[in-house]
Backbone:
């Protein structure tokens, strides 16, 4: 893995993690496109590549922590006080509970799909097909959102469960995590900003868990010494910086505009990926 490749993938991760266009699909496309252009066969990724992918997600997770730092602190304090007093009457305390509940549902659906998701990484054409499906989900969510004349302001148990399920399904490359969770929020009648905010906050436990568990369980320390740490660190920093700017401006975008723009992008990019990797197998 070269420094240029790490910077490129850092930019791709930073842009696509928070936009509803599937960061995993874009990382699959970028990595495999790079291999095709270099004449390298698309085979199983090395441990370094898998670890680098985790680090890129950690970079964008840090961006979420920085951007939503006040929300996160408020939720943590409210949840702690609620656990001590057994009083969950505040919105922040309930939101903390719903994030935990949504994360549990996500894990229950994501873990059984993990092997299939890893298999898809080496079949980018199939990932392209799933990206087209994501585009369709975004279009449909906008169609249904127009039918909800009154928007829900707060998340409830039902919304937490269903959005958690959507995030679990989005473990598959091509199913955008932010796209499916925000779209599901719109399906359920949530406002745009409420859906986007909850989507980003809900991503924290699952990404944090993956970032901590994978290195502890699967990384061989003796092998990790030989990783290109300069490229890994630079790529992680790039993904974090780009991710912060992306989430900042996406929150402004989602409050005023529809997801149809991203729907068109997913369909076009998905079809291109499907065709390209069917030609260059």
Residues:
């Amino acid at each position: 893995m070269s420094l240029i490749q790490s910077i490129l993938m850092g930019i791709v991760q930073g842009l696509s993690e928070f936009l509803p266009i599937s960061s995993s699909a874009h990382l699959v496309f970028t990595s495999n496109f790079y291999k095709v252009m270099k004449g390298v066969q698309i085979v199983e990724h090395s441990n370094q590549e898998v670890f680098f992918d985790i680090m890129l997600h950690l970079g964008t997770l840090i961006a979420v922590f920085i951007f939503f730092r006040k929300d996160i602190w408020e939720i943590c304090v409210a949840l702690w006080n609620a656990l001590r007093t057994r009083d969950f009457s505040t919105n922040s305390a309930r939101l903390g509970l719903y994030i935990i509940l949504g994360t549990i549902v996500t894990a229950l659906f994501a873990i059984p799909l993990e092997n299939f998701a890893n298999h898809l990484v080496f079949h980018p054409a199939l990932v392209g097909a799933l990206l087209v499906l994501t585009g369709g989900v975004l279009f449909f969510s906008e169609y249904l959102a127009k039918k909800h004349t009154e928007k829900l302001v707060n998340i409830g148990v039902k919304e937490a469960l269903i959005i958690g399920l959507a995030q679990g399904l989005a473990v598959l490359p091509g199913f955008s995590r932010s796209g499916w969770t925000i779209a599901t929020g719109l399906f359920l009648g949530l406002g745009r900003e409420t859906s986007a905010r909850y989507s980003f906050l809900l991503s924290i436990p699952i990404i944090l868990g993956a970032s901590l568990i994978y290195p502890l369980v699967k990384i061989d320390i003796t092998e990790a010494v030989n990783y290109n740490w300069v490229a890994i660190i630079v790529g992680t920093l790039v993904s974090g910086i780009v991710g912060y700017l992306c989430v900042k401006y996406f929150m402004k975008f989602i409050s005023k505009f529809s997801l149809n723009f991203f729907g068109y992008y997913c369909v076009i990019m998905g079809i291109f990926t499907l065709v390209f990797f069917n030609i260059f197998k």
User: Anything to note?
Assistant: The first helix runs from residue 3 to 16. The chain has one domain: 3-279. The mean pLDDT is 87. The CA atoms of residues 16 and 250 lie 11 Å apart.
